[in-house]
Amino acid sequence: MNIYWVLVGLHEFLGKVVFVFPPQDSNFPALGTRKGRNFKGNLGLLRIAGYLVEKLGYSFSMARLTTKEDVAKLLRNAHVGISSGYDNYHNSIELSELARDTGARSIILGGSYISTRARQIARKYPHINLVTIGQGEKAVCEMIKSQDCGKNHIVASGKDSYTPLRCLSTPLYEKWPIDHAPLFRGRKTALVYWGDGCGQALSVKPCLFCSICHQAPRLNCKTVKQVVEEMKLLENLGFGAVEVGSDDFPSTVSIKWLRELVSLIENGSCLKLDVYIHSRARPLKNTEKIDLLIRMGVKVIQTGFETGNTEIKSRSMNNKSTMDEEDALVDLCAKNGIYLHPSFTIGLPGETLSSLKQTTDRIQTILGRGVINTFQFDLLMPLPGSESFDLLCKNHSNWAEQDFVPLDELSKAWFAEFTNISFENAVEVRQRMIDCLPPEVFVGSFWTGDGKTNDV
Ligand code: B12
Ligand code: SF4
User: Are 171 and 53 in contact (CB under 8 A)?
Assistant: First the structure.
């Protein structure tokens, strides 16, 4: 079912704000999200709303609407903010046009995809007042405060904020469905975000396929006090686990931060939630850090191993982590009863059928260690914002100026021009690999190109 996730903010003097996260586009090729992950909201908009509560005194409520006509009823005279990724871009533009036609006071676009194509989007759609790159809270706040809606301009990220969940009068989390992901053993799981930025992107450079807007000039994290407050609130709402969505979580916080959090958890300031983190193998080389992660309740680590071919790895992964570091992480997880959710990427530059065979062999070896119950094996998506997209644009210069290029075109061109296997071949190998997995191993996010998805 199509869900428009909507936050409505009211203020006595400053007027109405409506934030919308539109559903995925119907023609979007099946990019499945992990089964059982029921997250249908958007943390980015939640954070902007929280900022408006803190800075301007707005009060917010939340709704999930199923038709754009129902959303349209809210838009008249409102500042309308729309959050768009690559996958819901067409619905976002359609909604912006609806906002224009129903007399919205201003129209603001932001989000992961908008950040990568701001100039092209602003030029193509003059009815959009503001297009933001990176974190949007400051830009939205300034616009509302000044009452000057501007004319089709672009604003790059300002200073960010971190707001615990309490910002909403109807907390989003109260309506959270139980997450049936096998990872969390039936525990109700909340998605949280504790830090911005990525150690890899800041210290070396972003991975070849990374389309995340790395605007933050440094790593940024919530205070330990904010995290504890958030965990307590989640526990009171009946949650048993949190997934920390931050990229490369342990490298976004300091060791001092981790020590302080663990000490508060162990002193009983909050009950113990199971924690699921995203991390690279390299930051986990530090034994004190590992010990602290275990003590704070980490039960699952999602990590990008990408390939089983050493040469491809060192050439295209910008020094992310070595096979030895990854093996050490596998050992560590096996020893401490932590599950790994590794992800592999099919189609790094120079990929051949034989390098892919090495990757599938490596997956089998790791499976044998008993640390995996879910994993990902995905085709590289050269999305705008990534180095892979820029490489493609050297051969397809018209793409650089377009606001959108369909994924089919991007992927087929990528496999033909930068790998030694065809796109169709890669899809087949992937399917064969998945077919021979033991039934208890769950495959996460995937793209088959055949219109099927395992999203629920
Ligand atoms: C958590 C997460 C998820 C979660 C939750 C997603 C959600 N609905 O919120 C789950 C697991 C469900 C998920 C699913 C998918 N995700 Co995801 N996800 C992330 C992740 C790791 C963090 C996003 C996040 O919450 N950040 C924290 C918040 C606070 O920041 P934020 O969202 O960026 O918002 C800030 C700014 O972007 C901006 N902003 C955002 N919206 C707006 C709106 C306005 C008006 C303004 C002014 C500003 C603004 O201000 C916000 C506050 O500072 C990002 C990677 C990343 N680091 O960004 C990928 C990412 C967003 N996901 C991505 C993708 C591709 C997907 C899927 C399509 C994957 C799939 N296999 O199907 C699905 C889409 C499902 C869906 N419709 O949501 C891509 C998007 C690429 C692109 N260019 O569009 C990213 C960037 C990762 C990547 N591979 O590059 N994802
Ligand atoms: S893919 Fe992940 S690790 Fe690589 S640069 Fe992007 S956020 Fe950082």
Answer: no
- Residue 183: what pLDDT? 58
CA distances from 315 to 311, 324, 351 (A): 6, 16, 11
Closest CA to 343 of 279, 283, 289, 293: 279
Spell out the domains of the chain, with CATH numbers in brackets.
Answer: 4-156 (3.40.50.280), 176-447 (3.20.20.70)
Model confidence at 54: pLDDT above 90: no
**Residue 107 contacts residue 99 (beta carbons within 8 Å):** yes
Is the distance from CB of 117 to CB of 84 less than 8 angstroms?
A: no
Neighbours of 432 (CB within 10 A): 10
pLDDT band for 438, please (50, 70, 90 cuts).
confident
* CA 156 to ligand 2 centroid distance, Å: 20
Chain mean pLDDT for the chain: 85
pLDDT at 258: 94
pLDDT value, residue 453: 38
CA of 212 to the centre of ligand 1 (A): 9
Residues 24/87, Cβ–Cβ less than 8 Å = yes
Integer Cα distance of 175 and 31 in angstroms: 25
Global pTM value: 0.93
pLDDT one-digit tens code per residue, 338-389: 989 898 999 999 999 999 999 999 999 999 888 887 788 888 999 999 999 9
Instruction: State whether residue 47 is helix, strand or coil.
Output: helix
Mean pLDDT over 31-59 rounds to 76
Mean pLDDT of 165-183: 59
Sequence-distant (6+) residues with CB within 8 A of 14 are: 56, 58, 144, 145, 147
| Partner residues linked to 5 by β-bridges | 21, 64
Note the residue count of the chain: 456
Q: Is 39 in the pocket of ligand 1 (CB under 6 A)?
A: yes
CA distance 111 to 84: 5
Residues lining ligand 2, Cβ inside 6 A: 198, 200-201, 206-207, 210, 212, 247-248, 280
With CA atoms as reference, report the closest residue to 443 among 21, 32, 10: 32
In SS3 terms, 349-374 reads as CCCCHHHHHHHHHHHHHHHHCCCECE
For ligand 2, what atom is nearest to the CA of residue 201? 5
Give the per-residue pLDDT at 441. 75
